[in-house]
Write a structure and sequence with these properties.
The complex is a heterotrimer of chains A (about 400), B (about 725) and C (about 250). By secondary structure, chain B is an alpha/beta fold. Chain B contains 22 helices and 28 strands. Chain B has an eight-stranded mixed β-sheet, covered by helices on one side. The longest helix of chain B has 17 residues. Chain C has about 250 residues and is α+β, with helices and mostly antiparallel strands. Chain C has a single domain, classed as Alpha-Beta Plaits (2-Layer Sandwich). Classes of the chains: A mainly alpha (about 400), B alpha/beta (about 725), C alpha+beta (about 250). Chains in contact: A-B, A-C, B-C.
């Protein structure tokens, strides 16, 4: 029944099967929306956050999805600025992923803050010293950029193309896309960095605090690098996943290996700098703040294994794999390494958010514990469901992978 | 006209763009922000002229002066009165929130019949006249045939004008009892009164001149007496050459501040006190006059002979040197030995209290500056005809009608102490109370009295105070029409019973009579709210005195001349329990523990505490939340319990499950069970809180419940 | 009319831990003064609001070597790199340049809780519930301090309401300067042991300035370099050592 909306030359499943696929996700989204309603209507006591654990699952989610959504800006940067044309194959998908991640993050943030109606105060009374101001500004602007980048994808839809005005608009938009890619890259640099700076500036939290390099703490740069490493890997993993789920080949194998190579190089740089940063922090920054860094890793839940896992198992190992041509060309190894890269970045964001808050600061305090409430989990899952639904719709009705038509299925 | 799609879209786009240039979106944004600042659930502040007035705190017998800040006549905060001679510019946390009590969720607003004995507790609204007439019928029967059961009134704060009224009321009934609530008197002074003949005078502690204070767990710096007095007497002690020795099995707030803390094994207080007596006698450190004039001195010397410090040290967990040093300290100058009682744990058993009190006699500090001094009582208009008795002396199952007084004592006690005195059938318990309290659980009828600060209440020097003091808690809030005046109510009962019993119109009339008695006594000075001093011996008018007192003034007695000699005695024998404690083996069998309830005065659930006290109990761990069991890590480990887990406590009286707080300040083997409020502002007045751990305490024949043998396991 | 105290006052406190008995007067007096609502039924020590919280701190030894102090912990009014000020995205945290008091503007607060994450003293509290008083108690609120709303952070401001009232009184009397300090915060006023001394640290002759430099006076987490204006004093060595210790995890 919706055949006339499906792009020409693409095979898509029947509408009924599509509905069956989407329905569980809609249900998940519905539960999440109810949880969100509870939090907005009654107050944040529905969460298990508290005065000590003032950030929880949601902030972790925000940081993670924004890091993973970095594929949009980094792919755009490589394609439009550095002219790596092979990435045309995934740019649309990357943009959709970016849009999902960023809009999801902003939506959750609006539930997370106690007074969402005052969100615009940040623009009215901005504190230019606050990392969160930078994040808010860049996030809002970049979300706008993403919407603009997403527009041509929508406008290319078979039905919409029948309106000549849209066709012209899309064409014009396409010409200025490098400008938006540039703006997007610039904005992304700042907010990815600022998200890292968010923790790096916490002078009261010796576990998170890092000294300033230039005008930002070192986490600022590390977050940019790690996001740049995670973004392509996430695009790689999602593309592979969509291939598996849709049982179609969507891009040429060369695109996968190229994404893997890019991700691997960024990851290698990141891991090396992260190692240097960690060593400097253990030996200089933390002692300066009166903290023995080893003390941060003496608890059961956050032992030094977490540091090893983050830097070696989920950092150095996938980086080496991705940079080794022979390994990279084995699809299973490539996807696994990309997946590990994503996990490494997720672990990093977890450590920065949860471990930072769990570790006591007052000398007589104990390790804090926190477990999210069902409302927090449901909201988290609602973002996942929203992402799946939006991506499924985009995949069905828009051309996310231009090569799909040309590849013999 | 044909509108094309394009035109429609242009219009929409243009409208959006155009709207941005109108004030509409911006005004909406602004209004939404303003709305978040003015939600109807955010209370609106009421501004107005500020005024201050003086009053006194009726929330416990401490007798602290209050400075009330009012806006448009409504109280907005309570504060201390600097330089006040009794409370020294100090009030306690409970008092700071006292003005919130009138609107407490547990507040009773009308009389109820309470059916709390069927398990399904319900409050049935009643009216005062019905209760009065039903009670009148009961009372008439009692007057006619006292053999079926008698009437008793439990006075929470003896010595007040209403106390005398209770006594007069009861004098009309043969066999009736005027009972002083457990813990209302200072246990050491009560024990001393049994050893010494103080005649009409009241014993008191002269902390201000003592050199050494030996306290057996008395919470001297945690609510005992008048807090301001204790802070003044015990702070900067070093400069005053004063030493505080705290002997108890818990590193309590007072023990933390003490110069010496003796971690005394709970239950061995008597042995320790007798060992101290032993050292004083063996080293000849008692005044010669004591040996000559105090009765039973040779018997006491003989008795203590068995309590050599070396032997006692093994039992009570201290060293012999500590016992000897303590003995030397209290014998070296003016000293006070005090047990103090606990607001929820009550006094020790009589034998222990006597052994502790005896040290004051032995060291020659009764009637001496820096020891136990005597003062006159506050003048009263009538001589109370009915002597006070303690609950322990009343035969079980003998009371048919029990009336519970409303005054806040700050202390609590097991309800079983009351209920075992009631006749088995048709007993009636009437409670006067402003709040649904833990004692409401025993009541059949509850009569709502005005909340604190809603009516004139009497405030006197607490037990142990060094001088007679009298003030009125003058109201700064109005009581509801449904509030019951106990005096008027009991007069109505008497009328309904057709008995010729002295009647009085109201509490206020009694208070005015007392004010006149103070005036007529020609003793002491009334200080008015503005600081004016009126010597009672000069000619002033009784009306001036009444006016000054109702305006927040206070009366303080002249100092009493100490009698030349006080006939005293020392105990000649001790109970079997203390003998057993000396046998050298731990008195508790393996696997059993010593359960010891404790509480903080004013927060023991016999009256409400303001909801904002949640800051201490619920929103922080500064105070022990009621219903928690504090145990040493070693005790916890022995029972396989971790912090926050639930323990099952079993005593002869039953079993109870309580969450555990692992607390290194508690001696191993001790189950330190917190009795106190569970501040909860949303609680509705439908049923009282259960009395918790107090229900598990074994009641001694002397009415004490300090220690109970208990076993504990993981729930 | 704008009032200034001595142009560069630095209001601070010295808390004598040896004197503190942990009675809780300061905590309740603070809540009454600043219209902090009683706990919601489900609130815990981690979701409640105590502008001033008193922590019982032990030396960690077994009975009877056990020792403890009570540490009243209010906003430490950091004077350098104030952690909560720089992080707030919308300037809802401001330092009053005339007093050095770190103020919180609840009406501007977004409720992002970044400041709470930043504060190493855990002196900031969030309104997880709508603040609620039992019916009738609202009429007894202090008219000098605006109640907060759900979803915002709040904290101790050295009883700014009292400072404001003192300034207003001075203005009404036509004075352009008020004494420094012109008021006493509720906690210092209520302390029965007089363990809390409040005053102007910049005034060398003040008690608080003298005590802040006294022997055995220290600050918590001084190595973070945030220069708190709340000092503590204890003659007990384990207490002073503890104050700068890395927490044992």
């Amino acid at each position: 029944m919706d055949q006339q909306f499906i792009p020409r030359g693409l095979q898509r499943t029947s509408f009924e099967r599509f509905l069956v696929w989407v329905l569980p996700w809609v249900l998940m989204l519905g539960i999440g929306l109810y949880a969100i309603y509870q939090c907005l209507a009654d107050g944040l006591y529905h969460t298990n956050m508290d005065n000590r654990f003032a950030f929880g699952l949601w902030i972790y989610l925000d940081l993670t999805v924004i890091a993973l959504g970095a594929g949009a800006f980094f792919t755009g940067f490589l394609l439009y600025i550095l002219r790596r044309d092979e990435l045309k194959a995934v740019i649309n998908s990357a943009v959709v992923l970016g849009l999902i991640c960023y809009s999801g993050a902003v939506a959750v943030l609006m539930v997370d803050v106690g007074q969402p109606l005052r969100a615009w105060f940040t623009f009215w009374h901005p504190n230019t010293h606050s990392m969160l101001t930078e994040v808010t500004f860049c996030l809002t602007c970049y979300l706008t950029v993403l919407v603009i980048e997403y527009l041509p994808v929508i406008l290319k839809n078979r039905k919409l193309r029948q309106i000549p005005r849209f066709l012209v608009f899309e064409f014009e938009l396409h010409k200025v896309m490098p400008v938006f890619a540039g703006v997007g890259t610039f904005l992304s640099f700042f907010h990815q960095g600022s998200l890292g700076g968010l923790y790096g500036v916490l002078v009261g939290r010796p576990f998170a605090f890092r000294e300033v390099l230039g005008i930002w703490p070192s986490t600022f740069y590390l977050f940019i690098l790690s996001a740049a490493a995670a973004g392509p890997s996430f695009v790689l993993v999602t593309t592979w996943l969509v291939q598996k789920i849709s049982r179609k080949r969507l891009v040429q194998p060369g695109v996968f290996t190229y994404l893997g190579k890019v991700s691997g190089s960024m990851l290698m740089v990141y891991v090396l700098l992260k190692a240097v940063d960690t060593l400097y922090w253990i030996n200089h920054t933390a002692p300066l703040e009166g903290a023995a860094a080893y003390a941060f890793y003496t608890s059961q839940s956050f032992g030094s294994w977490i540091l090893f896992t983050e830097i070696v198992l989920l950092g150095l190992v996938p980086a080496v794999v991705l940079l080794t041509k022979r390994l990279r060309e084995i699809p299973a190894v490539l996807v696994s390494a990309a997946f590990l890269t994503c996990c490494g970045i997720m672990l990093n964001r977890f450590v920065m958010t949860i471990q930072t808050l769990a570790l006591p600061t007052l000398p007589f305090d104990l390790l804090m514990s926190y477990f999210p409430s069902w409302q927090e989990v449901a909201t988290f899952l609602a973002v996942v469901a929203y992402g799946v639904i939006l991506y499924s719709l985009s995949f069905r009705y828009m051309t996310l992978f231009p090569q799909e038509r040309d590849i013999r299925q | 006209m044909n509108i094309t799609r394009r035109e429609l879209l242009t219009l929409a786009g243009g409208s959006v763009l155009g709207t941005l240039f109108t004030p509409i979106p911006w005004k909406l944004l602004d209004d939404s922000a303003i709305w978040t600042q003015n939600w109807s659930r955010i209370p609106a502040l009421r501004h107005g002229p500020v005024s201050y007035r003086l009053s006194a705190c009726p929330l416990c017998p401490g007798g602290c002066a209050l400075n009330v800040r009012c806006v448009q006549g409504r109280p907005v905060s309570l504060g201390a009165v600097p330089e006040h001679p009794v409370s020294n510019g100090v009030i306690c946390a409970t008092a700071y929130a006292g003005h919130h009590l009138a609107t407490h969720p547990l507040r009773l607003h009308q009389p109820y019949a309470f059916n709390g004995k069927t398990g399904e507790s319900t409050l049935l609204p009643m009216n005062e006249a019905d209760i009065a007439s039903r009670l009148g019928g009961q009372v008439r029967k009692i007057a006619q045939s006292p053999s079926d059961g008698v009437i008793a009134i439990l006075d929470q704060r003896p010595g007040r004008a209403i106390s005398a009224f209770y006594q007069e009321f009861l004098a009309g009934f043969p066999g009736s009892h005027y009972v002083v609530a457990p813990g209302a008197d200072d246990p050491t002074l009560s024990a001393l009164s049994a050893l010494c003949d103080f005649k009409d005078l009241v014993p008191s502690y002269d902390f201000e001149n003592a050199r050494t204070i030996l306290s057996f767990g008395a919470p001297l710096l945690d609510g005992w007496g008048t807090p301001g007095r204790m802070y003044a007497a015990l702070h900067n002690r070093a400069q005053k050459g004063r030493t505080l020795i705290q002997a108890e099995g818990v590193h309590s707030r007072t023990a933390l501040q003490a110069d010496t803390w003796l971690p005394l094994m709970a239950g061995t207080e008597a042995a320790f006190a007798l060992a101290v007596g032993h050292v004083i006698i063996q080293e000849g450190r008692y005044p010669a006059l004591v040996a000559r004039h105090v009765r039973n001195f040779p018997e006491y010397a003989e008795l203590t002979r068995a309590f050599a410090p070396e032997r006692v040290a093994q039992v009570c967990g201290l060293s012999a040197e500590q016992i000897i040093a303590t003995a030397r300290a209290i014998a070296s100058g003016p000293s006070i030995v005090i047990s103090g009682g606990n607001p929820a744990g009550g006094p020790f058993d009589t034998g222990t209290e006597t052994a502790i009190a005896a040290l004051n006699v032995l060291s020659g500090n009764v009637g001496c500056s820096g020891g136990v001094l005597l003062r006159a009582a506050v003048p009263a208009p009538v001589h109370a005809p009915k002597p006070a008795v303690s609950l322990a002396t009343i035969p079980d199952h003998s009371i048919k009608v029990l009336i519970l007084d409303a005054a806040a004592s700050g202390n609590t006690y097991p309800l079983a102490l009351l209920t075992r005195k009631l006749v088995r059938q048709d007993a009636v318990v009437v409670q006067f109370s402003a709040f649904l309290s833990s004692q409401s659980g025993a009541a059949d009828f509850i009569l709502p009295v005005p909340a604190p600060f809603e009516s004139l209440e009497e405030v006197q020097s607490p037990a142990g105070a060094d001088r007679a003091f009298f003030a009125l808690s003058s109201p700064f809030m109005s009581a509801s029409d449904k509030a019951v005046d106990p005096v008027a109510f009991l007069s109505r009962v008497a009328t309904a019973a057709g008995l010729a019993i002295p009647q009085a119109a109201s509490t206020e009339v009694l208070l005015k009579q007392r004010s006149e008695a103070i005036f007529a006594s020609h003793r002491g000075v009334v200080t008015g709210p503005a600081g004016t001093r009126m010597q009672m011996k000069d000619t002033v008018s009784a009306d001036d005195v009444w006016k000054a007192l109702t305006d927040g003034g206070y009366w303080i007695d002249d100092s009493t001349r100490q009698p030349a000699s006080i006939p005293s005695a020392l105990p000649a024998a001790i109970s079997a329990g203390q003998q057993a404690a000396l046998s050298g083996t731990p008195s508790l069998p393996e696997g059993t523990f010593r359960l010891m309830p404790f509480g903080w005065r004013g927060a023991t659930m016999t009256a409400a505490v303001a909801p904002v006290m949640s800051k201490l109990f619920q929103e922080s761990n500064l105070r022990a939340l009621g219903g928690r069991l504090h145990i040493n890590p070693a005790t916890a480990a022995a029972c396989g319990l971790a912090d926050g887990e639930s323990a099952r406590i079993t005593t002869a009286a039953g079993t109870l499950t309580m969450p555990v707080v692992v607390d290194a300040s508690v001696m191993p083997g001790l189950l330190h069970a917190a009795v106190g409020p569970v501040p909860n502002k949303t609680a509705t007045a439908t049923r009282p809180e259960s009395e918790g751990i107090l229900a598990l305490c074994s009641l001694q024949d002397d009415g004490s419940w300090r220690f109970t043998e208990a076993s504990m396991g993981k729930a | 009319m704008e009032q200034t105290e001595q142009s560069k006052s630095r209001y601070g406190m010295v808390v004598d831990l040896d004197k503190c008995t942990g009675c809780g007067d300061c905590v309740v007096a603070c809540a009454i003064e600043n219209n902090v609502a009683p706990a919601e039924q489900k609130a815990t020590e981690r979701t409640g609001i105590t502008w001033l919280r008193v922590y019982p701190v032990t030396n960690g030894e077994a009975f009877p070597a056990h020792d403890a102090v009570f540490v009243p912990m209010m906003c430490q009014q950091c004077g350098h790199h104030t952690p909560c000020v720089s992080v707030c995205p919308q300037n809802a945290v401001e330092v009053d340049p005339t007093t050095g008091i770190v103020g919180q503007i609840p009406q501007r607060c977004l409720g992002c809780r970044y400041c709470m994450t930043a504060c190493p003293f855990h002196a900031r509290y969030f309104n997880w519930w709508d603040p609620e008083w039992p019916a009738g108690t609202e009429a007894q609120l202090n008219p000098d301090v605006a109640p907060r709303m759900r979803g915002v952070a709040e904290k101790c401001n050295f009883c700014h309401g009292r400072l404001h009232a003192a300034r207003t009184r001075a203005a009404a009397e036509g004075k352009s300067n008020i004494a420094s300090p012109a008021y006493t915060p509720a906690c210092a006023e209520s302390c029965p042991a007089q363990a809390i001394v409040f005053g102007d640290l910049a005034d060398e002759s003040s008690d608080v300035a003298r005590l802040s430099k006294a022997h055995d006076t220290f600050r918590f987490l001084s190595k973070l370099g945030t220069e708190p204006k709340v000092y503590y004093h204890s003659a007990k060595e384990w207490v002073r050592k503890m104050a700068d210790q890395s927490p044992a995890v």
